[in-house]
Amino acid sequence: MKFTDGYWLNKEQYRIENPKETYEAKKIVDEEGNDALQAFATYSKIRERGNMLNVGNTTLRVFSPAKDIVGIRLTHFERKDKTPDYEIVTQEEVKPTVSIIPGGVDGQGAGIESGTATLTTENLSVEVSLNTEFRMSFKYKNQEITASELNAQASIDDISTGALYPLSVAGSQMSINEVQQSSINLVRPKHYMREMLNLDVDTKIYGFGERFTPFVKNGQTVDIINKDGGTGSEQSYKNIPFYLACKPGIDENSGIYYGVFVNESQPTSFEVASENVQRVQFSTEGESLEYYIIAGESAKDVLGKFNKLTGGSSLPPAWTFGLWLSTSFCTDYSEETVMKFIEGMEERDIPLDVFHFDCFWMKGFEWCNFEWDKNSFPDPEGLLERLHKKNLKVCVWINPYIAQKSPLFAEGSEKGYFILHEDGEVWQWDLWQAGNAYIDFTNPNAVAWYKEKLRNLLKMGVDCFKTDFGERVPMYDAKFYDGSNPAGAHNYYTYLYNEAVYEVLKEEKGEEEAVVFARSATVGSQKFPVHWGGDNVSNYQSMADTLRGGLSFLTSGFTFWSHDIGGFEEETPSDLYKRWTQFGLLSSHSRYHGNVQYRVPWLFDEEAVEVTRKFTKLKVQMMPYLYSQAEKAVKLGIPLVRPMFLEFENDPNTYSLDLQYMLGDSLLVAPIFNKEGNARFYLPKGKWTRLVKDEGMEDVLESKGQWFQENHSFLSLPLFIREGYKVEMNKELKKASDYKK
User: Fold this and answer.
1) Which residue numbers are catalytic?
2) Is the pTM of this model over 0.85?
3) 546: which of 78, 456, 490, 568 lies 20 to 30 Å off by Cα?
4) In the 3-class helix/strand/coil scheme, how is 646-702 assigned residue by residue?
């Protein structure tokens, strides 16, 4: 959100006030019993006592929830807006220290000597200037990594939306007749809080969740608001108000790496070296703004600290790493179709671990009723039993909405289990299913009711749920059971939704067996894996968009990720199906799924069968490597599929690569994005050993840190083992579910 008109002017609709100096600071104790810092910054320099009148203040609270992490809370007016709070995990062993070197004031209240107020946590410190020009500096190991300069922080009124001074004057001194006669607007204007943090030269910005815009975010405007917008626009299903800042170094000790997490669940806007090209700006509506600076030795170190700060990742069961096959969405499917698909995979010797039933396992217009459509599936218990005998796990589609035709609608409405309009009527619309209502997950009774419907399915034999949707949640004219601010509840909704589903899975299946297949996400959703990339399109451009969005998502605190192999929308040509199959089976999780077309390989051509068989077996045989890497990734809080720069931080060439990636720390994957098989990829310095290849290709490539071009058949792609590393294999494994540590 932009507030200025170029470098010198503010937009006329905004009244912007900035802290000019911090005139007082003191040591306080935070909620955890640790030392914290409180400071008061005024919007006018204090040269005399008169400067202390008719001027606003920002209260700064500086604290530390964990080593090398500082939290900053900026408050203009104290408000209780009931915006949902993300869970912050504090460390017991953190022991921040506070030191204050006060500035002096003379008898007239004017500053005569500057001072500093500093909070230090392990190797990170924040230093606030006192009684001089406002500045707040963040230093890691005594080196400044970023700073909030004079006029960066701001308290902003949008005077186009309401009165400012007339409101306060009218409210305290004017009668109602005087107000009416003067035509004063008594609507309170919208208020925003803003911060801007410096960017050093050559610092690159990543993250903000799953974003399909360019991988390096410098120059972009990013609005953190979950939307169901597909994979081909600036909208995102998974918005995370976090960015990773990296300035490459020439050796292990010369780079700069830090993260910024804005702890606001309501929509937050970032201007990433855009409105001000030397800074990252973030703002949100309201009277306060809270953010965290997370510093570390490396980008992986920073990501790990952010991941743990927001709850850490959970490890999915081994069987989830195998191949998932779906009915697809709008295709015609029944028990007969399902069994033909499964038997076809068996006959062609293609390992399959999970079968997924999409929306039409229930009757149309009744999503969700959590009842099998008996016309298509007359014996669901028997079907599930037969699938389990084939050593398959079963996933079924759900969403958090109840259509008006569903038998559950009347019960949910009567008991108050849905989000309401402000007038108390159920919030409904016809987008998706006719008369959709939304489960209100802030109501504990609604959560218990929803979980019980899922529990019945689990007891029937379902193993996991595809938790679709969760983005299109009302933000206006909406009332939640717990009184949550709808603007904040919008982004937070997906957390409560997936938490409820994940909880019932843990209760019925055990913690080690719990997994969802989720589309939407917010801060902390990494606790409920796995997430897939949403509704992509069946073309090579969308395949590349999908990878770019995944890498962005995985530099935002998440560990596991999947996508619809072949693309979701439209029909997939056979060449794209085969190229995407390679990519999909070299991702952390792998699922065939489409909209109007089945995704079984023999419907494309016989070579598609061969490609699917080869790469599915390869992934199964790599389970010792993949699962050990998954365990390591969860322990460290880092992604399993990771952008190249996370492994090669001292190689500046890796920082913009978004068409290749590392699968764990040992395996480089460069998918091919064309029919002809032309591959162009970058290998960091060292020797790289092929894991698959076409006939005539040399086994090892030695790179000085350079680009390569090759041509590959559909049975090969650039897939290399890093020098000094290994990929453990077990060729005896038949399915991912067979893997045991």
Assistant:
1) 468, 471
2) yes
3) 490
4) HHCCCCHHHHHCCCCEEECCCEEECCCCCCCCEEEEEECCEEEEECCCCCCCCCEEE
